[in-house]
């Protein structure tokens, strides 16, 4: 009871800091789970799930308990609905297409297999044995003629079945006898005679020409490349990759060497581009900017990307320039703060000119990742034409303390039974938990108990398979 009251009254930042120091408080989680409304319940109670009215960017402080934060699930919906699928374009069939989404369904350009062929090395036979044996047909060759009943020809796996052949006898199931009148093939004991059609791959077994093999929106994986090649494609029509520019803000950031004199290494510059590519983006530039409003304004206004992602400067500190710059650019804030920990100062803005959207990720590295999962991934999926991944849930192995009113995203690893074990070192400024994690569990306001099913966001495969462009 005491725990419950403490948690209910606690400053949200206190809770975040307690977690950052690894002082998870399972008791508080239990108590609050009973007291606080579950986000999903709130959503059901408001099935419309409408976004808060959009606001023009204001130069004033945001994301610091100003009351503008929207629920986590709502923020994802707003981000998903903020853009439109980009146009399709032809892409050579190869690694360059990996990670893009098919703009049209993949329709077979041929029957597969394209012809009747042998599934085994052995002999193509016609009718019942013994068979008089002559010649051989290898993969890629045309058979020289028709087989009559009682005739056989040597055949390799994948070779065209000669017309008239009724079955294939595997090499290990037959014996060849040399006689004065030629070579004769018999079924070797104890094997049965091949049934009609045995070990024959029939034309069209896998698909008929014109059949849809994969729907539009399928992400191009290595397997899709293989299937498309088999089905006759030299290029694919894929949805263009959203062009994304990353602006890393912060005078305190170092590109190399050890942290020193109050400065820290930039952890986001090396992390975000690969992550964004895995989400289907074409990362056109990563720029580090000093904390200067005019430099930021020029960089945003001058960008020709579809989406600009900034890191840092989202809060209300003395050199946090993102809000004022958006206000100067006449941006509309679609999301200005999200009820999620970490990451609550994240924002999504629509710009009147230049890049269509800007997503401001908080500077704390795990908070930035929370912004990637909450705003960037849903928007990129829409722009890139990716389908929504199937959600999945896993039981938690331990109680997880909740925030009184916000969703928490907590790094977890799957154990041998596919249960999710919450990791320590999950404070907003930490990456140690995340780097060891398989996913991020979504902990509703109030927390969750051991055994509760928690939704888990995949990390390597955020929002779909992680096939980057490789560049
Ligand atoms: N008075 C308040 N202050 C803060 C609040 C609040 O509610 N009231 N919220 C805190 C939270 S939560 C977050 S998250 C941060 C978000 O701040 P910004 O987006 O403005 O980020 P910065 O101030 O620029 O940086 C925060 C922190 O992260 C470090 N950082 C920034 N960029 C990087 C990078 N690329 N690699 C590694 N580390 C980075 C930076 O040095 C700071 O330590 O605001 C809190 N403050
Ligand atoms: O809690 Mo902040 O949003 O560090 O991430």
Automatic annotation (TrEMBL):
<dbReference type="Pfam" id="PF00994">
    <property type="entry name" value="MoCF_biosynth"/>
</dbReference>
<dbReference type="InterPro" id="IPR001453">
    <property type="entry name" value="MoaB/Mog_dom"/>
</dbReference>
<feature type="compositionally biased region" description="Basic and acidic residues">
    <location>
        <begin position="1"/>
        <end position="12"/>
    </location>
</feature>
<dbReference type="InterPro" id="IPR005110">
    <property type="entry name" value="MoeA_linker/N"/>
</dbReference>
<feature type="compositionally biased region" description="Basic and acidic residues">
    <location>
        <begin position="20"/>
        <end position="57"/>
    </location>
</feature>
<dbReference type="InterPro" id="IPR005111">
    <property type="entry name" value="MoeA_C_domain_IV"/>
</dbReference>
<dbReference type="InterPro" id="IPR036688">
    <property type="entry name" value="MoeA_C_domain_IV_sf"/>
</dbReference>
<protein>
    <recommendedName>
        <fullName>Molybdopterin molybdenumtransferase</fullName>
        <ecNumber>2.10.1.1</ecNumber>
    </recommendedName>
</protein>
<comment type="function">
    <text>Catalyzes the insertion of molybdate into adenylated molybdopterin with the concomitant release of AMP.</text>
</comment>
<feature type="region of interest" description="Disordered">
    <location>
        <begin position="1"/>
        <end position="68"/>
    </location>
</feature>
<keyword id="KW-0500">Molybdenum</keyword>
<dbReference type="InterPro" id="IPR036425">
    <property type="entry name" value="MoaB/Mog-like_dom_sf"/>
</dbReference>
<keyword id="KW-0460">Magnesium</keyword>
<dbReference type="Pfam" id="PF03454">
    <property type="entry name" value="MoeA_C"/>
</dbReference>
<dbReference type="Pfam" id="PF03453">
    <property type="entry name" value="MoeA_N"/>
</dbReference>
<dbReference type="InterPro" id="IPR036135">
    <property type="entry name" value="MoeA_linker/N_sf"/>
</dbReference>
<dbReference type="InterPro" id="IPR038987">
    <property type="entry name" value="MoeA-like"/>
</dbReference>
<keyword id="KW-0479">Metal-binding</keyword>
<feature type="domain" description="MoaB/Mog">
    <location>
        <begin position="245"/>
        <end position="382"/>
    </location>
</feature>
<comment type="similarity">
    <text>Belongs to the MoeA family.</text>
</comment>
<keyword id="KW-0808">Transferase</keyword>
<keyword id="KW-0501">Molybdenum cofactor biosynthesis</keyword>
<comment type="pathway">
    <text>Cofactor biosynthesis; molybdopterin biosynthesis.</text>
</comment>
């Amino acid at each position: 009871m005491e725990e419950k009251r403490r948690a209910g009254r606690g400053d949200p930042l206190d809770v975040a800091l307690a977690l950052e120091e690894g002082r998870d408080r399972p008791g508080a989680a239990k108590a609050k789970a009973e007291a606080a409304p579950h986000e999903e319940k709130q959503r059901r109670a408001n099935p419309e799930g409408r976004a808060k009215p959009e606001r023009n960017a204001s130069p004033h402080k945001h994301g610091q308990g100003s009351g503008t934060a929207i629920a986590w699930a709502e923020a994802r919906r707003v981000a998903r609905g903020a853009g439109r699928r980009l146009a399709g374009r032809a892409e050579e069939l190869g690694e360059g297409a990996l990670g893009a989404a098919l703009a049209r369904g993949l329709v077979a350009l041929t029957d597969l297999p394209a012809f009747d062929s042998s599934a085994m090395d052995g002999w193509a036979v016609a009718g019942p044995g013994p068979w008089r044996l002559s010649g051989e047909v290898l993969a890629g060759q045309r058979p020289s003629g028709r087989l009559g009943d009682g005739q056989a020809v040597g055949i390799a796996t994948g070779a065209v079945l000669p017309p008239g052949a009724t079955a294939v006898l595997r090499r290990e199931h037959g014996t060849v006898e040399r006689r004065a009148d030629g070579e004769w093939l018999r079924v070797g004991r104890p094997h049965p005679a091949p049934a009609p059609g045995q070990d024959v791959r029939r034309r069209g077994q896998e698909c008929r020409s014109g059949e849809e093999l994969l729907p539009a929106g399928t992400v191009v994986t290595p397997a899709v490349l293989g299937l498309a090649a088999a089905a006759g494609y030299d290029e694919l029509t894929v949805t263009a990759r959203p062009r994304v520019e990353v602006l890393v803000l912060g005078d305190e950031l170092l590109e190399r060497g050890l942290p020193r004199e109050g400065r820290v290494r930039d952890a986001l510059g090396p992390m975000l581009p690969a992550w964004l590519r895995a989400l289907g983006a074409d990362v056109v530039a990563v720029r580090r900017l000093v904390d200067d409003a005019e430099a930021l304004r020029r960089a945003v206004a001058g960008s020709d990307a579809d989406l600009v992602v900034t890191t840092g400067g989202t809060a209300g500190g003395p050199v946090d320039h993102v809000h004022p710059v958006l206000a100067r650019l006449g941006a509309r804030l679609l999301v200005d703060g999200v009820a999620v920990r970490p990451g609550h100062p994240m924002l999504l803005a629509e710009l009147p000119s230049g890049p269509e959207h800007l997503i401001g990720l908080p500077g704390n590295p795990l908070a930035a990742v929370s912004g990637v999962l909450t705003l960037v991934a849903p928007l990129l999926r829409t722009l890139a034409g990716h389908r929504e991944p199937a959600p999945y849930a896993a039981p938690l192995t331990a109680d997880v303390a909740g925030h009184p009113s916000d969703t928490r995203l907590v790094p977890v690893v799957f154990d041998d039974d596919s249960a999710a074990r919450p990791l320590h070192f999950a404070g907003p400024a930490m990456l140690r938990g995340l780097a060891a994690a398989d996913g991020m569990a979504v902990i509703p306001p109030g927390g969750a108990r051991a055994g509760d099913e928690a939704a888990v966001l995949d990390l390597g495969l955020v929002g779909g398979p992680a096939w980057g462009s490789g560049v």
